[in-house]
Amino acid sequence: MECQECQERPATLHFTQVMNGTKKEVHVCEVCAKEKGYMTYPEEGYSLHNLLTDLFNFESVPLGNTNGDTFRQTKELQCPQCKMTFTEFKRIGKFGCATCYHTFSDRLDPVFRRVHSGNTKHHGKIPTRKGGDLHAKKQVESLKTELKNLIENEAFEKAATVRDQIKEIEKQMRGDDA
Amino acid sequence: MTLQQFMNEAISPWMREDGPDSDIVLSSRIRLARNFAEASFPLIAKQEVLEEIKVFFQKEYEHQSFQDYQDFAFVPIRGLSPVEKRVLVEKHLISPHLAKHAESAATLISENEQVSVMINEEDHIRIQMYFPGFQLNKALKKAFEFDDWLEEKVNYAFDETRGYLTSCPTNVGTGMRASVMMHLPALAITGQLNRMIPAINQLGLVVRGIYGEGSEAVGNVFQISNQITLGKSEEDIVEDLQSVVKQLIEHERKARSRLVDQSGTQLEDRIYRSYGVLEYSRIIESMEAAKCLSNVRLGIDLGIIKNVSRHILNELMILTQPGFLQQYAKKTLTANERDVLRASLIRERLQLEK
């Protein structure tokens, strides 16, 4: 369907207008809708960024429990590294540095849960250099799953080798700790 | 390799190769976001810190090579003209964000342009790996190897529970955005895609137009990517994306053959009209050009138009962007001048096919 205003672009907004008791069908494109004032936009449209910062503003001020405590100053959480405060983080929706993650750690789970469909823990790649123990831990984890499968399938010989592998890695990890 | 060569070579060398399912999937991309552990993120970091990072990359990686990715060009964004910046954006080698925050931003680009590193974008490091056609697994494997190579010299910001730490909470964890660019004319024409998008979104994947966030689908080219980066492994994320892409490919193929069966003549008419417009018009706007190019490409894929290379869509989609047109004209152009030049460039390109 063509836009009824410009007759050029396809109409993407369809609605019924009721004015002085008469109904009128309106079919316009976004450009004309904006021009003719059918639609109002805030300054620059609602960006992903706005959406995010809105998502972070979840912390409701605790009501009720204010008797006598009204003037108590709650200390603002601030990152010792980059000086970003938690309020600032909520406003701009971005972290200032890696240390922010530790500083705000206790308050981040709800943020991540919202953005990442309920997830709060990383389950992916680990840096080769930095990972150290993590690699061994991850390897043990996947070997244990393999071991379970092998036992279920009664492949005991193979299972024994995998078990020995796990023991070996765990021994090494303990050795590293010592 | 100089910048001039980048610009002259409008089409990245990797784009010339045909990948699997390249009648529908134009390209596969893996992007990894990484940061230095010690420095504040670019958003609030001091100028000196960012400058130091930039210098580090130039010193360590300029003219270096890694596997198939030879002779890295180090390009500071500050030194580029507006047109040059735009060209890099249109080639998807840098993001609009990087072009805008030019002060301490830079990019590292391999000779074949398959891998590029954006320096001091929203994160200190953003690795981009491209493959032609549908090759997400291969792209992921190569991106990982490249990531390990960078890590030999960079102390990444990483946390045991949160994973790779990024400036924006939407990237934390894997820091990975996997995406495919798909040409889906039949699903778009028949309106099926709009019905499929909500289901795709529910799987934690996003469908958007070719130039990323908020852009509408120009020329029926869509980008599909993962939204979630925390809690799933990179392999699992890629697998989820892959299974959706496979289904989309199947649906698109079915929709195409149904179109041919049910409205063969109308379809042929639509394709040839577009071909006519591209071949004879003297003034053409970018939207119209994109629409016609999509139709002609569909015609080529269906065997209706013969003797025209399939790469023409990818190639002209990029070449007819404002940045490239001005690069070609070697001066800034008004919108009208661009429409005239666009038409003549398309005519010339089609002449080459004969």
TrEMBL record, chain A:
Task: Keyword check for tRNA processing, yes or no.
Answer: no
Q: Which residues form a coiled coil?
A: 140-172
Q: Which GO terms describe its molecular function?
A: cadmium ion binding; cobalt ion binding; copper ion binding; kinase activity; zinc ion binding
Which superkingdom does the taxonomy of this entry point to? Bacteria
Task: Give TM regions.
Answer: none
Ordered alphabetically, the record's keywords are: Coiled coil, Kinase, Transferase
Q: Which residue intervals define the domain UVR in the entry?
A: 137-172
Q: Which GO terms describe its biological process?
A: stress response to cadmium ion; stress response to copper ion
Q: Which Pfam families match?
A: UVR (PF02151)
Is Secreted among the key words of this record? no
From which residue to which does the signal peptide run?
none
Question: PANTHER family of this UniProt entry?
Answer: PROTEIN-ARGININE KINASE ACTIVATOR PROTEIN
What protein does this entry describe? Protein-arginine kinase activator protein
State the gene name recorded for this protein: mcsA
Automatic annotation (TrEMBL), chain B:
Q: What class of enzyme is it?
A: transferase
Provide the Gene Ontology terms for cellular component: extracellular space
List its EC numbers: 2.7.14.1
Every Phosphagen kinase C-terminal domain range: 24-255
UniProtKB keywords: Allosteric enzyme, ATP-binding, Kinase, Nucleotide-binding, Transferase
Q: Name one GO biological process term.
A: phosphocreatine biosynthetic process
- Coiled-coil region(s) at which residues? none
Instruction: Note how its activity is modulated.
Output: Appears to be allosterically activated by the binding of pArg-containing polypeptides to the pArg-binding pocket localized in the C-terminal domain of McsB.
Tell me the GO molecular function terms: ATP binding; creatine kinase activity; protein arginine kinase activity
The short motif RDXXRA motif of the pArg binding pocket involved in allosteric regulation is annotated over 338-343
Q: Which residues bind ATP?
A: 27-31, 92, 126, 177-181, 208-213
Catalyses which reaction(s): L-arginyl-[protein] + ATP = N(omega)-phospho-L-arginyl-[protein] + ADP + H(+)
Xref: NCBIfam families: PRK01059.1-4, PRK01059.1-5
Q: Which HAMAP family match?
A: Prot_Arg_kinase
Family to which the UniProt record says this protein belongs: Belongs to the ATP:guanido phosphotransferase family.
Q: What does this protein do?
A: Catalyzes the specific phosphorylation of arginine residues in a large number of proteins. Is part of the bacterial stress response system. Protein arginine phosphorylation has a physiologically important role and is involved in the regulation of many critical cellular processes, such as protein homeostasis, motility, competence, and stringent and stress responses, by regulating gene expression and protein activity.
Q: Can you name this protein?
A: Protein-arginine kinase
Q: Which organism is it from?
A: Virgibacillus oceani
